[in-house]
Amino acid sequence: MYPRDEFGFRFVVLARRWRRFVDDRLAKSGLSDATWTPLVHLDGVEDGITQTELAARIGLDTSSLVRLLDILCARGLVERRVDSNDRRARRLHLTPAGKAEVTRIRRLLLAAEAELLSDSSDDEIADLLRVLDRIAQRIETLRPGASK
User: Fold this and answer.
1) How many whole angstroms separate alpha carbon 77 and alpha carbon 97?
2) What are the pLDDT digits (tens) for 96-113?
3) Main-chain phi, psi angles of 91, to 5 degrees
4) What gap in Å lies between CA 31 and CA 25, rounded to an integer?
5) Under CATH, what is the fold of the domain 3-110+120-142?
6) Which of 2, 11, 35, 89 would be a feasible disulfide site paired with 83, CB 3.0-4.6 Å?
7) What residue segments make up the domains of the chain, in order of their start?
8) Rounded Cα–Cα distance for residues 89 and 87 (Å)
9) What is the pLDDT of residues 71-90, one digit of tens each?
10) Closest CA to 72 of 107, 36, 23
């Protein structure tokens, strides 16, 4: 069997196992995938993003995201602000409590990832990241409607 013949399957299986491992580690600290993922995606977005943009980034439909955002807003981690360019639209922002939670999440993520990558050198990881970046770029060029 050639490496290309098994790459996709192994990549998908590994990604699922990686995600499950990380989710289990974060769950031990009271965080679920549903709550930590949107917070991490909102981090560093100074002007905020729309619910539609966030849904696309995390792979959720907007109706599921609305319920989740209601929970995160009720917990004081996220706030919806009026878009200065379109008063009908709302942009999502982390609150100071949300930013503190992201700091905690990132610390937990780094610890989990360090466990998983402990047998790999920095050079090996850098090589893998370059390949993943090329695949991501290729996906974008093959996407329907992408300029070629």
Assistant:
1) 5
2) 999 999 999 999 999 999
3) -115, 145
4) 9
5) Arc Repressor Mutant, subunit A (1.10.10)
6) 89
7) 3-110+120-142
8) 5
9) 999 999 999 999 888 888 88
10) 36
